[in-house]
Amino acid sequence: MSASVDLADFLPAYLAEAEELLGTGHRQLLAMEASIRRGLANPRAVRELFRAVHTIKGLSAMVDVEPIVDITHWMETCLRHADRAGGRLPEASVEPLMEGLREIEQRVRQLAAGKQAAPVPPGLLSRLEALEAEGSSGGGAPRAAPAALALEEAVATRLSAAEREQLVTGATGGRRAVRLDFIPGADRAAHGVTINSVRERVAALGDTVKVLPLSGPAAGGGALTFVLLLLTEAPDAALLEAAGGPPASVRALAAAPASAPEPLPELAAPDEEPEEARRGGGSLRVEVSRLDEALERLAALVVNRSRLARAVAALTAAGAPTRELQAILQENARQLRDMRAAILRLRMVRVGDVLERLPLLVRGLRRSTGKSVRLELDVGDAELDKAVADRLLPALVHLVRNAVDHALELPEARRAAGKPDEGVVRVASHGRAGGLLDLTVSDDGRGVDAQAVAARAGVPVPASPDALLEVLCRPGFSTRDAANATSGRGMGMDIVHRIIVDQLGGELGMETRPGAGTTFRLRVPLTITLLDALVLECAGLRYAVAVGSVEELIEVDAAQVVRPAGAGGVCLVERRGNTVPLLTLARLLGRAGPGGCEAPAAKALLVRQRGELIAFGVDRLVGQQEIVLRPLEDPLVRVPGVVGATDLGDGQPTLVLDLAALGLARAKGSPRRPGGPAREEGRLI
C-alpha cells in the first residue's frame, strides 16, 4: 500500500469536511463583523471560527495541502489574539481574514477539480502576518522561546512555531502533550476504524494540535502512519481504544520547562461540547451521485409497477380471477410510495442551508456599491430536493444582486426620500400543500419605473406588473448603459425566468411600487423527478399534469358555457357564481380546429395563471398516477408549456404539461406547437 494511494482515498472526505468548515467560518466571521459594527465583543464567534480554521489546518496537513496550511496558520494566530482579548477583533482584521477564507475555498475547489492547490499569494501572507504583529503589540508579558519537544526530525520539521508553542504551553499548563500513532489497514477499515473516525474519537478526549502522514514501514506491516499530536488529560488506555488498539501506540512528548510562558486560554467553553465531537453525532455523508442512482432504480420500479397495473387490468377485463393480484398490487404501491418518501428525505436540504451564501454576497455588494444594506432571512425549516436547490440558488443570487445594485438607493438619496440610510433586502420562504415552495425576494428601494423600462425597451408602457416583468426578462435587456462588475449585461432576469419557469416548471411574479420597493414571488416544486400527476386524454392522446398545479376539477355543462361578444373565441364557464375563462386543451395543443366553443370539453382543470383562475377543458380524466418526470434538456425540442415526458407503463412517451405556461405561450402567439403531429412523426415533440 503506497502513501499516495492512501492520501487519494482520503481526499473526498477532506473536501466534504473542508466545505462544511468553510461555511461555518464564513458565518462566524460575518457574525463577528456585525458585532464590531455594534461595538460588541463576540467570543463565541471567535472560538467557533478558530475551531473551523484549526480543523481545516489539521486536515490539510493530513493530505499535504501546504498552501492551505500556511494560510490557516496565520489566521489561527490572529484569532488567538482576538480570543485573548475577550472576543474583540480589530475591524481592520476582518477583510484579511475574509480574504484568507476565500483563498482557502479557491484551493479546495482546485483540489475538487483534480488540480494542484495554487501557491499562496505573497501579499496575503504579509497582511496576515501584520495582523499577528498588531495583535501581539497590545501589551502583556513577552513570550518565552518555545521549549524543546521529544519529536523526531520528520515530525518536528513540519510543526509551525504556533503549533510548537501550543504543545509546550499546554504541557506546562497541566495537560499532557502526547503523540498517538495510527496505522491504517484494510482489516481496521472493515470495522469502521479509519483516520477520520479516529480523529473524531480523539477530539472528544482532548485538543488535536496537528495530524500529519508519514510514509514508510510501520508496525503491523503497514506503509503509512498518521501521527496525531494531542493535548489531553485522558489516560493512554483511552487514547489507544479511540485509535482501535494495537498496532496504534501512544508516547509522551516531554518538554523542557519554559520560562513563564503566556497562558493560552481554552478555546472551548467549559459547558460546550467540542465541535468535532458534535459532528460525529450519527451523521453519514453520502455522495449525491449515489442518491441519484437510488432514485433512478426507484424510477424504474415505478414504471414497472405501472406496467404491472396495466397487465392486471387486462386480466381482469378478460374475466381472470385477479383479486389477490389486486391486493398485492396495492401493497406494492404503498411500499413504493414509502420508499420514494424515504429517498426524497435523504435528498432534501434545508432552504436555510441553500441560502447561507447570500449574506456573504450582500457583504461583497455592500463594499463594491458603497450602499448600506441589511439582509434579512426568514426561511424557517422548509426543505427541498437538492436538484431543485442547485438550480434555485443562482436565480436567488441574481435577484439579490439586482435588488442591491439596481433597486436600493445610495444613503444620501435615501435620506432625501425620507428613508433610513440602510436599505433592506428580505428573503423569505415557506412550504405549501401540494409539494410546492413559495419564496419572496423584496427590497425597500426605488421600485421599477415602468415608463423608463418601456422607453429603454422601445415598447409601450406595460399596463400590469406581469407585463412589466415580461419586459424585464427579455434576453439582453438592461436598464444600464454600460456593464459593471455586478450587472448591466442583460442576463440576470432572463436567467431567473429560465430557471424558475422553464427548468423548474415554477411561477415567477412581481409587485412594485415607485419609491417603496419591489417584491419578486417565486413558486417552485419541492422535487422535479418523482411526482403525483393527473393523467388526462385529449384529442385521442394522453397527457400528464402535476397534481400540485391543479386547484380543482369540475364538470363542464355545455348549456352553461358562453362566449361573450368580442371575446375572440374565449369561452366562459360558471364556477360558484363566478365566470372563469375556459380554454380547450385540444385547441392549445393544435389538435383541433378553430371552432372554439362548438364542442366544449366534458371536464376542466382549474389552474391559477398569474393569480387568476383559468379552466382547461379536456376530453377525459384517466386517473391519478405517480410518474417519473424526464425533463426535456435539448433546446431543439423544448416547448413552452411542456416540462418533460414520462412513461405511464405502456412504453410510449407521454408529455407532461404545465398548463399555466401553455396558456401564456398560446396567448403570446408562440409558433411552436407541442402535441400530436410531431409525435406521430416519430419524435417526442
UniProtKB/TrEMBL annotation:
<dbReference type="InterPro" id="IPR004358">
    <property type="entry name" value="Sig_transdc_His_kin-like_C"/>
</dbReference>
<protein>
    <recommendedName>
        <fullName>histidine kinase</fullName>
        <ecNumber>2.7.13.3</ecNumber>
    </recommendedName>
</protein>
<keyword id="KW-0808">Transferase</keyword>
<feature type="region of interest" description="Disordered">
    <location>
        <begin position="261"/>
        <end position="282"/>
    </location>
</feature>
<feature type="modified residue" description="Phosphohistidine">
    <location>
        <position position="54"/>
    </location>
</feature>
<keyword id="KW-0418">Kinase</keyword>
<feature type="domain" description="Histidine kinase">
    <location>
        <begin position="289"/>
        <end position="528"/>
    </location>
</feature>
<dbReference type="InterPro" id="IPR002545">
    <property type="entry name" value="CheW-lke_dom"/>
</dbReference>
<dbReference type="GO" id="GO:0006935">
    <property type="term" value="P:chemotaxis"/>
</dbReference>
<dbReference type="Pfam" id="PF02895">
    <property type="entry name" value="H-kinase_dim"/>
</dbReference>
<dbReference type="InterPro" id="IPR003594">
    <property type="entry name" value="HATPase_dom"/>
</dbReference>
<dbReference type="InterPro" id="IPR036061">
    <property type="entry name" value="CheW-like_dom_sf"/>
</dbReference>
<dbReference type="Pfam" id="PF01627">
    <property type="entry name" value="Hpt"/>
</dbReference>
<dbReference type="InterPro" id="IPR036890">
    <property type="entry name" value="HATPase_C_sf"/>
</dbReference>
<dbReference type="InterPro" id="IPR005467">
    <property type="entry name" value="His_kinase_dom"/>
</dbReference>
<dbReference type="Pfam" id="PF02518">
    <property type="entry name" value="HATPase_c"/>
</dbReference>
<dbReference type="Pfam" id="PF01584">
    <property type="entry name" value="CheW"/>
</dbReference>
<dbReference type="GO" id="GO:0005737">
    <property type="term" value="C:cytoplasm"/>
</dbReference>
<dbReference type="GO" id="GO:0000155">
    <property type="term" value="F:phosphorelay sensor kinase activity"/>
</dbReference>
<feature type="domain" description="HPt">
    <location>
        <begin position="3"/>
        <end position="115"/>
    </location>
</feature>
<feature type="domain" description="CheW-like">
    <location>
        <begin position="530"/>
        <end position="668"/>
    </location>
</feature>
<dbReference type="InterPro" id="IPR036641">
    <property type="entry name" value="HPT_dom_sf"/>
</dbReference>
<dbReference type="InterPro" id="IPR004105">
    <property type="entry name" value="CheA-like_dim"/>
</dbReference>
<keyword id="KW-0597">Phosphoprotein</keyword>
<dbReference type="InterPro" id="IPR051315">
    <property type="entry name" value="Bact_Chemotaxis_CheA"/>
</dbReference>
<dbReference type="InterPro" id="IPR008207">
    <property type="entry name" value="Sig_transdc_His_kin_Hpt_dom"/>
</dbReference>
